[in-house]
Amino acid sequence: MDQFDKSDMQVHVTLLGWLYIAGHAIFLLVGICGFLFLRGIGGIAGDPIATRVLTLIGTLGATFFTILSLPGFLAGFGLLKRESWARILALILAFLNLVNFPFGTALGIYAFFVLLQREASEYFT
Q1: Which of 12, 78, 101, 114 is deepest in the core (most CB within 10 A)?
Q2: What ranges do the domains of the chain cover?
Q3: Is 65 exposed, middle or buried (0-12, 13-18, 19+ CB in 10 A)?
Q4: How far is CA 101 from CA 49, 89, 106, 108, in A?
């Protein structure tokens, strides 16, 4: 692997932190938009049962996407603050993101590239 110096590591970890925050903000936005879309369709339908069912499905979807986004926000903010636990959390999320093609895969590979450098363990101490 390439050797990073301290300033390179700071740039890469900061960028990675913001990528985690931005990527998981998109998850949160998808959940909110899905909720609003389903609730709107239920309102347009005019059927009270359809409105309740679609609102429930939208709420469950929004809750699911919110729960998915929270670890990414936590990892992103932790990386920006140079917390040692954030490196471990970011690596776990990077592994899980590999199946989220294409953006999650790219983020996961970049996270592995940055956080598995020897200098990364020194950077987070």
Answers
A1: 114
A2: 6-123
A3: buried
A4: 36, 20, 8, 10
pLDDT in tens, 98-124: 999 999 999 999 999 999 998 888 888
Among 61, 85, 62, 59, which residue's Cα sits nearest to residue 74? 85
Per DSSP, the residues of 53-75 read: HHHHHHHHHHHHHHHHHHHHHHH
pLDDT tens readout for residues 66-95: 999 999 999 999 999 999 999 999 999 999
Rounded distance between C-alpha atoms, residue 93 and residue 111, angstroms: 9
The pTM of this model reads: 0.89
